[in-house]
Design goal:
Rossmann fold; 6-stranded parallel sheet; 5-stranded parallel sheet; 14 strands; 3 domains; about 425 residues; alpha/beta
Length: about 425
């Protein structure tokens, strides 16, 4: 039996469901002390510590230089099949077009008395992007490089550093380098895990510090980013992947099983749920899962995720299903129903929403254009996908006149004194006094 079938709320109410899923937040492998020691070592010893960790865990013969030579980045274009380069170019173009629509402009308002108020939008100066190497560097997350670099570039960031753990022979996968070349990113370093994150945050002789760090990684990377919040900006603290599918009688069990497995193969903590009104569909999904699971290269990993965190949840109505979706606030939500747009307005909490029977989650992961860096573990209740705004900062603009102080200074001073801040009040009143002379 690949996953459970549960009737909601008769057997499992929403609160119990959320309590069950919350177990993914703390898998019992707290490594914060280890990561803090790594961060401290890199902060103190810089390249020396970075080199020692990289040689110990990734590339024993790593050369002294971390940065990949520009000629190697350019040469990687010749190591990747032309057809794959064309696909990468098209995916980059789609992602760039989508994010270009997110760009915000600075704005100003003026009043008759000369007061100017506004907001100035500026990109951060320097960004560091983490790109996991995948299994031994042979399954590089090139889509993550695209999804993180493009919004930073659209925001106007011109200084971008990429880090990725080297393979055992000290090289990076040519697909990572070729993708960097297509993106126009020329600074790529061979460094990974928590020590790579530390180098980006604190800076070393070889790697200059950045203002924002973005990109997914293992628990060491995620923990390092969480600890460094405040030292640098980060994209988000991402948890295990997850998908929730809301399905009615029109759904295809084979489609749904395939989409559930697309997340289950990520991680043993990945959650794959289908919420449906159809008991017949639920049984068909379970059969399809067993059939498809047997054909997957990562079947053991996916089977464990389905057993621990997968499920088909039976509800009495689509409205009950929507209520459950909004409580779960999933990273990925598929509306596998006959009229998905009719339900869209009822969805309040989801990282990304995929509508209809022919829009599986990988469409968003790789190609359509929206960002695949999404809030997990219920944080879609209050946070959003990675965007151009993730790489921008906003400064408030205020310019008031002598007349403004004359008209409003007394009110401002009164508010300051209500809070017990006498110097605040006097900084306004000293101007009032001179204005009346």
């Amino acid at each position: 039996m690949p996953c459970r079938i549960v009737r909601v709320p008769a057997e499992l109410n929403a609160e119990a469901l959320l309590c069950w899923l919350s177990g993914r937040k703390d898998p019992g492998n707290d490594i914060s002390a280890t990561v803090r020691a790594i961060l401290a070592a890199v902060k103190k010893d810089g390249d020396k510590a970075l080199r020692a960790y990289t040689r110990k865990f990734d590339a024993p013969d790593l050369p002294d230089r971390f940065q990949v030579p520009a000629r190697d980045i350019k040469a990687a274009l010749g190591s990747v099949p032309a057809a794959d380069l064309d696909i990468l170019r098209e995916a980059i173009a789609h992602v760039r077009d989508f994010h270009a629509r997110q760009a915000e402009q600075s704005w100003f308002t003026t009043s008759p008395d000369g007061t100017v108020l506004g907001q100035m939008v500026r990109p951060v100066d320097r960004v560091g992007l983490y790109v996991p190497g995948g299994q031994g560097g042979e399954t590089p997350l090139i889509s993550s490089l695209i999804m993180n670099a493009v919004p930073a570039q659209v925001a106007g960031v011109t200084d971008i550093a990429v880090i990725s753990p080297p393979r055992k022979d000290s090289t990076l996968n040519p697909y990572i380098l070729a993708t960097a070349a297509l993106l126009g990113v020329s600074e790529v370093h061979r460094a990974g895990s928590a020590w790579g994150i530390a180098a980006l945050a604190y800076g070393t002789k070889s790697i200059r510090p950045v203002d924002v760090i973005a990109g997914p990684g293992n628990i060491y990377v995620a923990t390092a980013k969480a600890i460094l919040v405040g030292e640098v900006g980060i994209d988000m603290i991402a948890g295990p992947s997850e998908i929730t599918i809301l399905a009615d009688d029109s759904a295809d069990a084979d489609y749904i099983a395939a989409d559930m497995l697309s997340q289950a193969e990520h991680d043993p903590l990945a959650a794959s749920l289908c919420i449906t009104t159809s008991a017949q569909l639920a049984e068909s999904i379970r059969t399809a899962l067993a059939s498809q699971l047997a054909k997957l290269p990562r079947r053991d990993l996916a089977a464990r995720a389905l057993k621990d965190w997968g499920g088909v949840l039976l509800v009495d109505s689509l409205d009950d299903g929507i209520a459950l979706v909004n409580r779960i606030a999933p990273e990925h939500l598929e509306l596998a129903v006959d009229e998905p747009f009719a339900l869209l307005g009822k969805i309040r909490n989801a990282g990304a929403i995929f509508l209809g029977h022919h829009c599986p989650e990988p469409v968003g992961d790789y190609f359509a254009g929206p960002n695949h860096v999404l809030p997990t573990l219920g944080t879609a209740r209050f946070s959003s996908a990675l965007s151009v705004q993730s790489f921008c900062k906003k400064s408030s603009i205020i310019a008031t006149s002598k007349d403004y102080i004359t008209r409003n200074g007394g009110k401002i001073a009164r508010l300051a004194r209500l809070e017990g801040l006498e110097a605040h009040a006097r900084s306004v009143e000293v101007r009032l006094e001179k204005n009346t002379k």
